[in-house]
Structure prediction request, 171 residues.
Amino acid sequence: QRESLRFEQRHGMLRNVLSTAFLQQARASLLRQSLVIAGAEVLLSLALLTLIGFWLTRHLTLLSHASDQVAAGNFDINLPVKTQDEVGHLTQAFNAMSRAVRDRIAALSEAEAKQRQHAIQAQQEHARLGSLLGAMNVGILFEDVKNRVLYINPAFRRLWLIPEAVDLIGL
Prediction:
């Protein structure tokens, strides 16, 4: 039988002792640095969002004031397009819209003036025709497609002995 060798002899004691104070200090320092970085990131994000919000609302405020002017009847608005983003496209569309409305209003005003001029000319022609027909010695009666009387001249009344008090128009 074999004897197993045992090494159970004690010759002394070795203790390996490390101080953990520097680990606790490093942990506290890391926590402080993390909090400072997180706080700086939050402040930077807030500043960036504030700047973006200010930039957007500044351009939208210009559009809002311009739309108020258009609503008040001032169509000679032309906002400068400073960006090529959505706000810039909106500004371009607003400028095109105000130009189109201004042009259409000018065209309508011109058409209205022409219509007034034509109405005056038609009234003058109607008066001339009435004078001409009234001066004729021949009796004249105009009817519409439903045989209703539209016009009779004084000679027609005299020839047919119709008194002025009798209104034949529309019969």
User: Anything to note?
Assistant: The longest strand covers residues 149-152. DSSP finds three helices and two strands in the chain. The chain has a mean pLDDT of 86.
